[in-house]
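Example record for the data management plan.
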Amino acid sequence: MATPHINAAPGDFADTVLMPGDPLRAKYIADTYLENVRQVNDVRNMFGYTGSYKGREISVMGHGMGIPSVSIYAKELITDYGVKSLIRVGSCGAVRDDVNVRDVVIGMGASTDSKVNRMRFNDHDFAAIADFELTQHAVAAAKAKNVPVKVGNIFSADLFYNPQTEMAEMLKRYGIVGVEMEAAGLYGVAAEFGARAMTICTVSDHILKGDSLSSADRQTTFDDMMLIALDTVLRDDAARA
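Corresponding structural encoding:
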């Protein structure tokens, strides 16, 4: 049954959905990596697709920008379409000296300046963490492909342009491996509704050093990350078989 934000039919989504922020990225992923692709959602141009990768049915759908947007789509995918695993695939900024552009960052935990998880957790602190097995398989997939990977706590910011200019140095001091805008919300939704979630990002810029990738380099690193994400799904299947 359709929801206010998704017009797919029952059964249109696979049990695992890869979620980039940009709906056109979802289309790129579907066209580039999946076979026998069909479009399953186009509400508000938040495109969703289902196809197969090496014989495994996988869906991909955009989630928009920020915690409120990803929370809407994640909740409806889980509760209305029976999705069991959600993997955010995106980009992030770095603050630590040992994290560089092109690195892959896996969000084992997600701190945030948003109040959404306090709202769902009776105003208490909620430790927003990724699914351990998905994280483990993603690390193994990255190492198998010789892609540098950093695993740790990421920070999901409500503001892209943060007026608190001291934040970057504080995040560095606390060992944050990447700064993005969605993971903490995704992990909270997954916990509330009994699904599994993970975030994997490529480092597109370094907030303190000022380093950044060109458009061409961003595409290359995105493709590296996507192969890791897809291999993660296959490894997870094999481990759970």
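Summary line stored alongside the record: The helical segments are 23-33, 67-81, 116-120, 132-144, 167-173, 183-193, 215-240.
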